[in-house]
């Protein structure tokens, strides 16, 4: 009983941590792409919003 | 879990991103357009003897004139950004929504960690505090070293500024997190973490050679912080609201 509960808790914790890590990585990737990536196309597309959100630009 | 995280982040990011984009288009983008006229040399600041007195003679007239010039100029094919008019507006909205959705994903990941560790139960009001923390980390404290900049401002190398910005954002979040989560006196180490990038110092140019008028740059910097503060509060409130609903059942 205890063992089952422990296993369940571990599994829940693991899926929880996995989901948190996925959300965190997606968030960082989005902010990086929109705000920091040095590609000329992305820079042009996001130019005004980079300035407006006060990311370093140019 | 992942569904709760993404659903609340996407909803909050979209709504707060649209609020931010609307404020940007109303208050900030016109100043960017005007600054680009100085950057491209279509307008000059103090370099021609007549320009300055003329501008000072009728400030509101000069301002309107410059703004409408900016519009014409964009249509005439000012190629700084490769986009103009409607396309450029749409791209600004899209990239702002993408950025705030990214901020929201990071924030709800923080919500899940805080609740999982039993530190707090997220409410919309709690969310607003998280929003203030996000504002502090991404705009308020970075502004101490690097002022929000208009096109045509002089600045140090881009990579150096980006690195300093990322370091400042990460250390500010770590510092705020330490002060919020730890009960022992160790929490005051958070202040040191927040101060560290400013002791280290932001990269600055050798001299000031920007072509953008300082009055314009100052107005822009002030408005960026106000718009950012409002958008971050909206983001935190919405993320807290949607997250508490998602996890209530």
Automatic annotation (TrEMBL), chain A:
- Name-wise, this protein is CbtB-domain containing protein
Give the species this sequence originates from: Thermohalobaculum xanthum
Q: Which UniProt keywords apply?
A: Membrane, Transmembrane, Transmembrane helix
Q: Which residues cross the membrane?
A: 20-42
List the top taxonomic levels of the source: Bacteria, Pseudomonadati, Pseudomonadota, Alphaproteobacteria, Rhodobacterales
What is one Pfam family matched by this protein?
Answer: CbtB
Superkingdom assignment: Bacteria
TrEMBL record, chain B:
Q: Which UniProt keywords apply?
A: Membrane, Transmembrane, Transmembrane helix
Report biased composition (Basic and acidic residues) as residue ranges.
52-81
Residues covered by region (Disordered) = 51-81
Q: Which InterPro entries match?
A: CbtA_put (IPR012666)
Stretches that traverse the bilayer = 90-114, 126-144, 164-181, 188-204, 216-243
Q: Pfam families from the entry?
A: CbtA (PF09490)
Identification of the protein by name: CbtA family protein
What is the species of this protein?
Thermohalobaculum xanthum
